[in-house]
Amino acid sequence: MLQPAAGMARLGTETAFDVLARAAKLQAAGKSIINLGIGQPDFQTPGNIVEAAIKALRDGHHGYTPAAGILPLREAVAADLQRRHGVEVSPERILIVPGGKVTMFFAVLMFGEPGAEILYPNPGFPIYESVINFSGAKAVPIPLKEDNGFAFSAEEVLGLVTPRTRLIILNSPANPTGGVTPVAEMDRLVAGLARHPQVALMSDEIYSQMLYDGREHRSVLHYPELEDRAILLDGWSKTYAMTGWRLGFSLWPEPLIEGAVRLAVNCHSCVNAATQVAGIEALNGPQDGVHEMVAAFAERRAVVMRELNQIPGFRCIEPGGAFYAFPNVSGTGLKAKELETGLLEEAGVATIAGTSFGRMGEGFLRISYANSLENIEEAMTRIRAWLTERGG
Ligand SMILES: Cc1ncc(COP(=O)(O)O)c(C=O)c1O
User: Is the whole model's pTM more than 0.90, yes or no?
Assistant: First the structure.
């Protein structure tokens, strides 16, 4: 009998991938499916970035690179952070990783062990809770509530901190809710954390360039008092439509960067060389592609909001960022998972049940508007028709 480590039984998953697979199977069987389940931009990576990767391969970038990433890329990341957040950081604190997920995995591995507690957003990106459980630490949910715009309450977060708390995970703009943490709430949290100097923070800011209606993103970088304990997670996947390239970066406090690089050496050695060169072009080249994509998302968001709020049993608060809406569907009388299954199999619309993002997601559905306006309108018509047929 094989004896896998106990942690394996505690490892969760990202069910969005299961829905994708089920949708693909139904499509292969000839059923028309509109995919509003997917968490990636429906745009191609801008051409200048693709060309930079091709050139890098032709120029012979075929070997290992330093585990932390090539210096010109880390310098480009530092310059980008300075441009966007007005803060000077040393490239020595930057680690290039294969996608945003790797930073959360490393941060949790670094702090998580039996006896430790890690706070994470719920509903939130499912990998946080999964990896915390895997590490043996106690996963302590930070409830994100609809009536608070799906932002955390600083008071509530601070009330969850105990002497065993090692790490707090934050995510704004958020998956799956599109919620954006107000600046004042972030200020209150940071002020309160002065009383808990042993607690590290990991701020997942992968959607920080997808904001609507003039909303402001307040990065952890804004707070000099967090410099020695805040880990920043960001990357290229969403901003530059590069999910399949596997490219992300993290900024680590000075005392942690050596350990983070060592985790990289033990895990993946380095990110593939040509992708790193493409990452430089993404940051230093024209940003028109980013602006066009965000403008398209803003237009779709308006349509999604209008339509969702007309579906019987649905109500949806306005998401401030990312490309997700998170309607409250409790008025349909169906559990989130029942709705996800019915909509996929009978209405031909892929969505994700709120419970895929933690138990506090019951009564909600995640709608990704990374799809064309035409498909979004058709999906909304199908959802409304399906619910009406069921007598909803
Ligand atoms: C909040 C959040 N963080 C991180 C990631 C992971 O990004 P990547 O594909 O770069 O690993 C995602 C992807 O969906 C996400 O939604």
Answer: yes
First to last CA, the chain: 51
> Which residues approach ligand 1 with their CB closer than 6 A?
39, 99-101, 125, 171, 175, 204, 206, 235, 237, 243, 248
DSSP 145-177: -GGGTTPPPHHHHHHH--TTEEEEEEESSPTTT
CA–CA dist 181, 172 (Å, integer) = 6
Residue 378: what are its φ and ψ, rounded to 5°? -65, -40
Read off the pLDDT of residues 151-175 as tens digits, 9 standing for 90 and up. 999 999 999 999 999 999 999 999 9
151 near 182, Cβ under 8 Å?
yes
Short-list 291, 276, 287, CA closest to 235: 276
How close is the Cα of 385 to the center of ligand 1, in Å? 33
Task: Please give the number of the atom of ligand 1 that sits closest to the Cα of 236.
Answer: 10
Indicate the angle between helix axes 100-111 and 126-135, nearest 10 degrees: 30
Distance (angstroms) between ligand 1 centre and the Cα of 16 equals 12
* Helix H or strand E encompassing 7: helix 7-10
Nearest ligand 1 atom to alpha carbon 174: 1
Question: What spacing in Å lies between the alpha carbon of 39 and ligand 1's midpoint?
Answer: 8
How many angstroms separate the alpha carbon of residue 290 from the centre of ligand 1?
17
d(CA 9, CA 7): 5
Q: What is the pLDDT of residues 176-201, one digit of tens each?
A: 999 999 999 999 999 999 999 999 99
100 C-alpha to center of ligand 1: Å? 5
